[in-house]
């Protein structure tokens, strides 16, 4: 239980550092959070694949939404800023740990995504000065629908890499 609480607190610390610091040296805190997380995990390989997959998939999704005009960073851009991409990396650190309880049944992840996803975006947009050109409520409704699908998918990534890791361990033991 203490590691789960530490995981949640480290996620929040990294989230605040990224959102409030933007693309600044504050991002070193995110690096520290990820390093501590990887030191605590039993499998660097499986967890690293998960973090990388969540980072890539989330960055692509947010960049797609940016190009649809859902976000306004006050300057023309086609990809999201690094600080926003790193929030996905941080989210990946929670899937097998403090958010593992949402993996089964699938609707828990969907419900958490539908509520928590838009709230996180709204809070981040307010703190970081990000505009929501389509106004608040339509944007939150869109994000809610997207996140209701995204969270179970991310848990699917976690399950896949966990199963691959367990299979490798069984293979090693039987050799």
TrEMBL record:
Q: Which residues cross the membrane?
A: 26-43, 50-68, 80-99, 111-131, 137-158
Taxonomic lineage of the native organism:
Bacteria, Pseudomonadati, Pseudomonadota, Gammaproteobacteria, Pseudomonadales
Q: Which domain of life is it from?
A: Bacteria
Q: What is this protein called?
A: Membrane protein
UniProt keywords (A-Z) are: Membrane, Transmembrane, Transmembrane helix
């Amino acid at each position: 239980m203490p590691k789960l609480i530490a995981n949640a607190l480290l996620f929040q610390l990294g989230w605040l550092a990224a959102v409030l610091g933007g693309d600044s040296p504050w991002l070193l805190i995110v690096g520290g959070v990820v390093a501590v997380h990887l030191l605590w995990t039993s499998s660097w390989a499986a967890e690293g694949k998960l973090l990388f997959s969540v980072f890539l998939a989330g960055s692509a999704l947010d960049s797609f939404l940016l190009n649809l005009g859902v976000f306004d960073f006050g300057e023309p851009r086609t990809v999201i800023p690094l600080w926003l991409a790193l929030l996905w990396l941080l989210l990946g650190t929670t899937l097998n740990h403090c958010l593992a309880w949402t993996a089964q049944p699938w609707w828990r992840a969907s419900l958490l995504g539908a509520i928590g996803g838009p709230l996180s975006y709204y809070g981040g947009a307010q703190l970081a000065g990000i505009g929501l050109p389509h106004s608040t409520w339509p944007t939150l409704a869109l994000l809610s629908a997207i996140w209701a699908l995204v969270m179970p998918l991310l848990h699917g990534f976690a399950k896949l890499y966990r199963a691959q890791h367990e299979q490798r361990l069984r293979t090693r033991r039987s050799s």
